[in-house]
C-alpha cells in the first residue's frame, strides 16, 4: 500500500526533517526518563500500564472519528467543523433508542424519549449496561450509526452539495454553521444538562473471563479487573477499523475512494462517479462518527451536547499528525494523540495534557505539514 | 504611507454605484448608511417595545445592550477584517488573542493585595501592556504559522487559542508565589481588577463632560430611566469613540500602499511576491497589528466587567465574531460595523427582545421538557410550547446563528455589503477615459 517512497528525501536535510529529528530525540529522551522513573520506582509499573491502556482506549474512539474527518478532508476537500456534532448526534440518537427499548415498562415514555431530561429513568433501573441488556446496547449502536448517516446525508444535500465547488474556506465556514445549528437543535430537544445515562460497568476479574476459555494468566494480570464497557468499545472499534481497511483495500468502491483522495482530477477523468464516492464517504465517515459518540458515552457514562465539539480539536490533531487524507495515518495519529494525552500525565498535571497534544499538533502542522508519516499517501 | 494621496473618498465604488452617488464622498454615504440602519433599528425596537408593553426602562436598557454589543463586536470585527477581509489570513484564534490582552491588563492593574495579586499599575498602562502582549503573542504565532496553507493556518490559530485558554484555566498556573505575594491566573475563577469602565466616573469629574453628564442624568430621572442604564450608556459612548478611531485607522491602512499590498496578498500572493513585495514581512506586520487591536478590543469588552475568567474565551466567541464579519461582508470596514450591529441587534439581542415581549403579554410558564410541551400542543394548547420555545431561546439563538451562517455561505458569501469592490489600485482603472493620452502619473 505504500507507494510514495520514491521521493528523494535524503538529498538534503530540510527544516522539516530537522524538526522531525528533534521530535524523535525528544521522544527518545522521554522514553529514557520513563525507564529511569520505573527503575527508581518513582512510577509504579501498574500505573504506567493503566496510562497506556487508557491511551489505547482514547485513541480507538478518536481513531473512529478521525477516519471520517480524514475522508471528508481528502475527498470533499474541506476541514469539517461539524464532524464533532455528528459524534454528538450518534450519541444522543443511539442512547435514545437504547432507552426506548430497554426501558419499556420500567420508566415513563417522556424520560426515555428525552434521555432523562427530566431526571427520571435511572440508568441502573433501566438496566443500561452490557450484561443486563446486551441486545439493546447493540441495537442502540446500530441506530446511532444509521441516524448519524441520515443526518449527514441530509446536511450534505441541504448544505454541502450547493457548495461543492466553493473552495475550502467557504465550506469550512458553512460547516461551523452546521455545527452550531445541529448542536443546539439537539440542545433544544434534550436540554443542555450533562447527565449520566449508563449504569456503572460490570467489572469481572480478568482471570474469571479467561478461565471460561480454560486458560491461566500470569500473576501480574490475574487480579486485574476488566471494565466490560471499555472492552466493548475496544472490540467494536477494532472490528470497525478492520472492516474499513478491508473495504478500502479490496472493493472497487474503496479503490475509487483512494483514487479520489489521491488525485481528484485524475479520478474524474478515469470515469469514477464522483457523487457516488461522496455518498459513500458520508456513509462511512458519519457512521463511524456516530458509533464513536455512542461508544464514548458507553465508556464515560455521561452524555452532554458538547461531547463531540470538545473532542473535535483532538480529532483534528490526530488527522493532522497522520497527514491529512491518509486513513492509516489518521489511525496512527490517533494512537499518538491518545498516548500523548495519557502518557504525558507522567510528567505534567492532568489539566495540561490537552495542551501537550495541541502543541504537538501545531509543531507538526508547521514543520511537517504532510504529517509525521509523510510519504504514505494511500487513502 | 504618508505619501499616499488623501484617498479615503472616491475609490471604493464600482462604476454602477457611482452614477447614483456621484458627488457624495464615500465616507459620507458610509456614515449615512450606518446611521440609517442604526436609527431605523432603534426606531423599530422603540415602537415595538412601547406598543407591546415592554416598558420604557426595559426598552432603553435593551437598546443600550444592543449598542454595547454592537460596539464591542465592531471593534473585534474591524480587527479581524484586517486579517481575513483584507489580507486573507483565516485567523480563528481571536478569542485567544483577546484573552492575552485582557489577562495582561488584569495582571498589570490588579491590586497588589488581591488574590491572585497584580502589579497595581494605572489602567492606561494596563491597556497598552495588554495590546503589546497580544501583539507579541501574535508575532510568536505568526512567524512560523504563516508558512502553512489557509485551512492549516485556521487550525493552528484555533489550537493556539485553546492552548492559551487551557493554560489560563489550569490549576498549575493558578498561583505562583514570587517573594511573599501570590501571582498567577487564578485558574477557573480568574483575576479581579478595576474595570476599564471606571473611566466614566473619571470623565464625569471633568468640567464640561461632567456638566453634560449631569443634564443627562436629570433627563433620565424625568422620563424614568434608571441611572445604571445611563452609566452603561456613557461607557458605550466611549466604546463608540473607539470604534470610530478603529474605523479611521483601518480605513487609512486599507487605502495606503501597505493596504494595497494586503489586498494583493489576498487575491494572489504569488503575484504580489513576483512584483517584489516582501509578503512575509507584510503578513507578519498586519497579523501583529490585528492581534494588538484584538487585545485592545478584548480589554474594552471583557475588561468592563470587574473579573476575567477563561470561560469568556471559548472558541465559540471567535465564531460569533466571524459570523458578524461575514454578515457585514468581509473586506469592507463599513460592512464590519454594519455586520457587528446586525449581529448584536438581530441575532444576539433580538431573540431576547422577543422573549421580553412575550413575557410582557402572555403568562407562560415553561414546561420542564419538550415532551410536555408537545403533548399540550397535541391537545390543542399551544401556550406550553410557546413557553418552552421562549425558555430555550438562548439555545435557539445558536441555531439561528448557524442557519444564517449557512445561508450566507450558500447565497451571499460576500455578506450584506459584499457587492462593493474595493479596488486594490490607487486609481480606478475601470473608469479611465477610453482616449489614450499617454496615461496619468501613478501616485
UniProtKB/TrEMBL annotation, chain A:
Primary location group: membrane
GO CC, any one term: plasma membrane
Record field: transmembrane: 21-39, 59-79, 86-107, 133-155, 167-190, 231-248, 277-297, 303-321, 328-349, 355-373
Subcellular localization, as worded in the UniProt entry: Cell membrane
Listed GO biological process terms: D-alanine transmembrane transport; L-alanine transport; L-isoleucine import across plasma membrane
Coiled-coil residue windows: none
Keywords carried by this UniProt record: Amino-acid transport, Cell inner membrane, Cell membrane, Membrane, Transmembrane, Transmembrane helix, Transport
Membrane topology classification: Multi-pass membrane protein
GO molecular-function terms, A-Z: L-isoleucine transmembrane transporter activity; L-leucine transmembrane transporter activity; L-phenylalanine transmembrane transporter activity; L-valine transmembrane transporter activity
Family: Belongs to the binding-protein-dependent transport system permease family. LivHM subfamily.
Protein name per UniProt: Branched-chain amino acid ABC transporter permease
Organism: Natrarchaeobius chitinivorans
UniProtKB/TrEMBL annotation, chain B:
TM spans (from-to): 31-56, 62-82, 89-109, 121-143, 232-250, 284-304, 316-348, 396-411
Cellular localisation: Cell membrane
Disordered, as annotated region: 1-23
InterPro entries per UniProt: ABC_transp_permease, LivM-like
GO MF annotation list: branched-chain amino acid transmembrane transporter activity
One of the Pfam families matching this protein, by short name: BPD_transp_2
GO cellular component: plasma membrane
Keyword field: Cell membrane, Membrane, Transmembrane, Transmembrane helix
Major location (coarse): membrane
Domain of life: Archaea
Membrane topology classification: Multi-pass membrane protein
Name of this chain's protein: Branched-chain amino acid ABC transporter permease
The organism of origin for this protein: Natrarchaeobius chitinivorans
Taxon lineage: Archaea, Methanobacteriati, Methanobacteriota, Stenosarchaea group, Halobacteria
Amino acid at each position: 500500500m505504500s507507494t510514495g517512497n520514491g521521493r528523494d528525501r535524503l538529498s538534503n536535510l530540510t527544516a522539516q526533517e530537522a524538526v522531525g529529528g528533534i521530535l524523535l530525540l525528544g521522544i527518545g529522551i522521554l522514553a529514557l526518563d520513563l525507564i529511569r522513573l520505573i527503575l527508581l520506582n518513582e512510577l509504579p509499573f501498574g500505573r504506567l500500564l493503566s496510562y497506556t491502556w487508557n491511551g489505547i482506549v482514547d485513541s480507538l474512539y478518536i481513531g473512529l472519528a478521525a477516519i471520517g474527518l480524514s475522508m471528508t478532508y481528502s475527498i470533499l476537500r474541506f476541514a469539517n467543523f461539524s464532524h464533532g456534532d455528528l459524534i454528538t448526534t450518534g450519541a444522543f440518537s443511539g442512547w435514545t433508542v437504547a432507552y426506548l427499548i430497554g426501558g419499556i415498562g420500567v420508566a415513563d415514555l417522556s424520560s426515555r424519549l428525552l434521555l432523562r431530561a427530566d431526571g427520571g429513568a435511572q440508568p441502573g433501573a433501566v438496566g443500561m449496561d452490557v450484561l443486563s441488556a446486551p441486545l439493546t446496547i447493540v441495537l442502540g449502536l446500530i441506530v446511532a450509526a444509521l441516524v448519524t448517516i441520515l443526518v449527514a446525508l441530509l446536511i450534505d444535500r441541504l448544505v454541502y452539495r450547493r457548495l461543492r465547488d466553493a473552495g475550502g474556506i467557504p465550506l469550512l465556514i458553512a460547516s461551523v454553521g452546521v455545527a452550531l445549528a445541529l448542536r443546539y437543535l439537539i440542545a433544544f430537544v434534550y436540554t443542555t444538562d450533562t447527565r449520566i445515562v449508563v449504569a456503572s460497568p460490570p467489572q469481572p476479574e480478568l482471570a474469571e473471563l479467561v478461565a471460561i476459555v480454560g486458560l491461566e494468566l500470569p500473576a501480574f494480570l490475574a487480579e486485574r479487573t476488566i471494565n466490560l464497557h471499555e472492552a466493548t468499545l475496544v472490540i467494536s472499534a477494532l472490528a470497525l477499523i478492520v472492516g474499513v481497511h478491508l473495504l478500502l483495500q479490496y472493493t472497487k468502491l474503496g479503490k475509487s475512494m483512494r483514487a479520489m483522495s489521491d488525485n481528484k482530477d485524475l479520478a474524474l477523468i478515469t470515469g469514477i462517479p464522483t457523487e457516488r464516492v461522496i455518498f459513500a464517504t458520508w456513509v462511512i465517515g458519519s457512521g463511524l462518527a456516530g458509533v464513536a459518540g455512542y461508544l464514548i458515552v458507553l465508556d464515560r457514562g455521561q452524555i452532554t451536547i458538547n461531547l463531540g465539539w470538545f473532542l473535535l480539536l483532538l480529532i483534528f490533531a490526530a488527522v493532522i499528525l497522520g497527514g491529512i487524507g491518509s486513513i492509516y495515518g489518521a489511525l496512527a495519529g490517533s494512537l499518538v494523540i491518545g498516548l500523548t494525552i495519557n502518557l504525558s500525565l507522567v510528567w505534567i498535571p492532568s489539566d495540561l495534557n490537552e495542551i501537550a497534544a495541541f502543541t504537538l499538533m501545531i509543531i507538526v502542522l508547521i514543520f511537517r505539514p504532510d504529517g509525521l508519516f509523510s510519504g504514505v499517501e494511500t487513502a | 504611507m504618508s505619501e499616499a494621496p488623501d484617498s479615503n473618498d472616491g475609490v471604493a465604488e464600482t462604476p454602477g454605484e457611482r452614477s447614483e452617488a456621484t458627488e457624495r464622498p464615500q465616507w459620507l454615504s458610509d456614515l449615512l448608511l450606518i446611521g440609517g440602519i442604526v436609527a431605523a433599528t432603534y426606531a423599530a425596537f422603540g415602537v415595538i417595545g412601547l406598543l407591546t408593553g415592554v416598558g420604557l426602562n426595559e426598552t432603553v436598557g435593551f437598546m443600550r445592550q444592543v449598542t454595547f454589543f454592537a460596539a464591542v463586536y465592531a471593534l473585534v470585527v474591524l480587527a479581524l477584517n484586517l486579517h481575513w477581509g483584507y489580507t486573507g489570513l483565516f485567523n480563528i484564534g481571536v478569542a485567544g488573542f483577546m484573552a492575552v490582552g485582557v489577562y495582561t491588563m488584569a495582571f498589570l492593574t490588579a491590586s497588589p493585595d488581591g488574590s491572585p495579586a497584580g502589579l497595581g499599575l494605572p489602567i492606561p498602562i494596563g491597556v497598552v501592556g495588554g495590546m503589546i502582549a497580544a501583539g507579541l503573542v501574535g508575532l510568536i504565532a505568526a512567524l512560523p504559522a504563516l508558512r502553512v496553507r489557509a485551512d492549516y493556518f485556521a487550525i493552528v490559530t484555533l489550537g493556539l487559542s485553546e492552548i492559551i485558554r487551557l493554560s489560563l484555566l489550569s490549576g498549575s498556573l493558578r498561583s505562583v508565589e514570587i517573594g511573599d505575594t501570590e501571582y498567577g491566573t487564578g485558574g477557573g475563577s480568574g483575576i479581579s481588577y478595576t474595570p476599564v469602565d471606571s473611566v466614566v466616573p473619571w470623565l464625569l469629574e471633568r468640567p464640561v463632560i461632567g456638566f453634560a453628564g449631569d443634564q443627562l442624568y436629570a433627563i433620565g430621572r424625568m422620563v424614568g430611566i434608571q441611572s445604571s442604564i445611563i452609566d452603561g450608556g456613557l461607557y458605550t459612548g466611549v466604546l463608540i469613540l473607539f470604534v470610530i478611531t478603529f474605523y479611521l485607522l483601518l480605513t487609512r491602512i486599507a487605502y495606503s500602499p501597505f493596504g494595497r499590498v494586503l489586498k494583493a496578498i489576498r487575491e494572489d500572493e504569488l503575484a504580489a511576491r513576483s512584483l517584489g513585495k516582501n509578503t512575509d514581512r507584510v503578513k507578519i506586520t498586519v497579523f501583529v497589528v490585528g492581534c494588538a487591536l484584538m487585545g485592545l478590543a478584548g480589554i474594552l469588552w471583557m475588561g468592563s466587567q470587574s473579573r476575567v475568567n477563561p470561560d469568556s474565551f471559548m472558541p465559540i466567541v471567535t465564531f460569533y465574531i466571524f459570523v458578524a464579519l461575514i454578515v457585514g461582508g468581509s473586506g469592507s470596514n463599513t460592512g464590519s460595523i454594519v455586520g457587528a450591529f446586525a449581529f448584536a441587534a438581530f441575532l444576539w439581542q433580538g431573540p431576547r427582545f422577543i422573549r421580553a415581549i412575550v413575557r410582557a403579554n402572555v403568562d407562560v410558564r415553561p414546561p420542564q421538557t419538550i415532551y410536555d410541551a408537545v403533548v399540550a400542543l397535541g391537545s390543542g394548547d399551544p401556550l406550553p410550547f410557546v413557553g418552552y420555545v421562549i425558555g430555550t431561546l438562548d439555545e435557539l439563538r445558536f441555531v439561528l446563528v448557524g442557519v444564517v451562517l449557512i445561508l450566507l455561505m450558500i447565497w451571499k458569501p460576500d455578506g450584506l455589503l459584499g457587492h462593493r469592490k474595493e479596488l486594490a489600485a490607487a486609481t480606478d482603472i475601470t473608469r479611465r477615459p477610453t482616449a489614450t493620452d499617454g496615461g496619468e502619473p501613478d501616485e
